[in-house]
Amino acid sequence: MLNGPALGLPAKLMDKARSINRQKSESMRKAIKGGVKIAYGTDAGVFAHGLNASDFHLLVELGMTPMQAIQSATVTAAELLGQTDHLGSVQTGKFADLVAVASDPLQNIAVLEKTPFVMKGGTVYKNTLISDGK
Predict the structure, then answer these.
(1) Cβ–Cβ < 8 Å for 126, 116
(2) Which residues contact residue 73 at a Cβ distance below 8 angstroms, ignoring those fewer than 6 apart?
(3) Which residues contact 75 (CB under 8 A, 6 or more apart)?
(4) Are the C-beta atoms of 69 and 60 separated by less than 8 Å?
(5) Measured between alpha carbons, how far is 124 from 47 in angstroms, rounded to an integer?
(6) What is the pLDDT of residues 64-93, one digit of tens each?
(7) Phi and psi of 125, rounded to 5°?
(8) Contact at 8 Å (CB) between 105 and 112?
(9) What string of DSSP letters covers the chain?
(10) Torsion-angle region of residue 16: left (phi > 0), alpha (psi -120 to 50) or beta?
(11) Maximum C-alpha span of the chain
(12) Rounded CA gap, 94 and 84, in Å?
């Protein structure tokens, strides 16, 4: 783990960040336990693009089931955005960007951090699941 000096940040600022992170985690635990609907999302400007899937395991650590974490990025997000007519599930007439993973994310949510198959708008952008056509 990086510390303040390694990041060029003063210890006082790092201590404050750690305190805020503890408060955020406790608030999320309470919200999840209380049944608050949570939409998975990111501003993606604070870390490299493509790394946001690591948040799935954090949601599970904070109290969501793996299915609830996945739904927070799909059906629940669409519902909270008022877009269930267009997004959130795989159905005829809806937009669907899909990913596939090599094992069951309900058993190990971290598998979503490495996606060997990506389809966006009906176009396959990545497919390393089947490399020899079989």
Answers:
(1) yes
(2) 39, 40, 41, 56
(3) 84, 88, 89
(4) yes
(5) 25
(6) 999 999 999 999 999 999 999 999 999 998
(7) -100, -25
(8) yes
(9) ---HHHHT--HHHHHHHHHHHHHHHHHHHHHHHTT---------SSS-TT-GGGHHHHHHHTT--HHHHHHHTTHHHHHHTT-TTTSSS--TTS---EEE-SS-TTT-GGGGGS-SEEEETTEEEEE-S-SS--
(10) alpha
(11) 57
(12) 9
Are 121 and 95 within 8 A, CB to CB?
yes
Give me 10's structure tokens: 């003063």
Go through the chain and tell me how many residues it has. 134
Residues 62 and 28: beta-carbon distance below 8 Å: yes
Residue 63, phi-psi category: left (phi > 0), alpha (psi -120 to 50), beta (remainder)? left
Q: What's the average model confidence in pLDDT over 83-106?
A: 92
- Per-residue pLDDT tens over the stretch 12-43: 888 888 889 899 999 999 999 999 999 998 76
